Amino acid sequence: MPDTTSPLLLALREGTRTCHKGLEQRLPFFSAGFDLPAYRRLIEAYHGFHAPLDAALTGYQGAERRKAPALVQDLHALNLARHDIDALPLCPTLPRIDSEACALGVMYVLEGSTLGGQVLKRAMAERLGIDADSGAAFLDVYGPATGANWRAFLQRLAEASVSTQAQSVDAAIATFECFEQWLDQQGVLLQPNPHL
Ligand code: HEM
Fold first, then answer.
1. Ligand 1 pocket check: which of 10, 20, 110 to mutate, most ligand atoms within 8 Å of Cβ?
2. From ligand 1's centre to the CA of 152, what distance in Å?
3. What is d(CA 69, CA 92) in angstroms, rounded to the nearest whole number?
4. So what's the pLDDT on residue 66?
5. Cβ neighbours of residue 36 under 8 Å, at least 6 residues apart?
6. Per-residue pLDDT, 194
7. Which residues are CB-contacts of 122 (< 8 A; sequence separation ≥ 6)?
C-alpha cells in the first residue's frame, strides 16, 4: 500500500488536535442517560450543519461524498416526516470555501469524522440498538468503502500544493469551530471541560 502520509496531512492533524479533543469531550454519545430522543436531536443538529456544507462543497467533491442523504435517511428511520425534516434549522455560519486549499481543509474534518464514525457506530448499536437501517446510517456513511475513501482523500492531500498549507489548516480549524458553535446553539452538547 502506498504511503499517503503527506506534510499537509500532518499539519492538519497537528492543527486540529485540540479542536477534536474539545469537541469529542462535549459530544454526548457516551454520557449517562443518552437515549434515542437525545440521539435524534443530535442527528437533527448534524443535519443542520452537513446539509449546507454538502452544498457549499459542490464543485470540490463528488456527490458520493455528500453526508446529508444518510442523515435524512436516519431522520426518517427515527420517525421524522419529510416536512419535519424540511423545517429543521440550517447552520448559517459555515467555514469559507473559496479555493481548493480551503475545501481540502474542510473535507479533512468531514472525511476524518467517518473514521471516528466507525467507533460510534459500534457504540450506538450496543447502547441504543440501532444500525444503518434504524437511524445510524450516517455513522457508517461509506460502509465498507470507508478505508478506501479515506486513502483516496489522503492521496488528494498528498498531491495538493504545499504553498497553501496554512489556508487548509485554517479552514479545518474553522470547520471544527463552526460545527461546535452550531451544535452548542442547538443545545445538544455537554458543557466544556475546564480542565482541557
Ligand atoms: C465522540 C465523538 C468522536 C469520537 C469518539 C471520535 C473518534 C475518532 C477516532 C478513534 C479517530 C481515529 C480513527 C482512525 O485513525 O482510524 C478519529 C479521527 C478523526 N476524527 Fe473523530 N471522533 C469523534 C468525533 C469527531 C467529529 C465530530 C469530527 C469532525 C466533525 C471528527 C473528526 C475527525 C478527524 C478529522 C479525524 C482524522 C484524524 C487523522 O487521522 O488525521 N471526529 N476520531
1. 20
2. 17
3. 19
4. 98
5. 78, 128, 130, 135
6. 74
7. none
Q: Supply the residue whose CA is at minimum distance from atom 22 of ligand 1.
A: 116
Confidence (pLDDT) at 1: 58
Q: Which residue has the cell 469537541?
A: 23
Query: Is residue 12 pLDDT above 90, yes or no?
Result: yes
For the stretch 73-132, pLDDT in tens is: 999 999 999 999 999 999 999 999 999 999 999 999 999 999 999 999 999 999 999 999
Atom of ligand 1 nearest to the CA of 179: 30
pLDDT given for residue 4 in this prediction: 82
Neighbouring C-beta atoms of residue 82, cutoff 10 Å: 10
The span from the CA of 157 to the CA of 173, in Å, is: 16
pLDDT for 196 beyond 70: no
Task: Tell me which residue of 170, 123, 155, 134 sits closest to 178, measured CA to CA.
Answer: 170
**How far apart, in Å, are the Cα atoms of 123 and each of 23, 107, 128, 132, 184?**
17, 24, 8, 13, 22
Domains defined along the chain, listed by start: 7-185 (1.20.910.10)
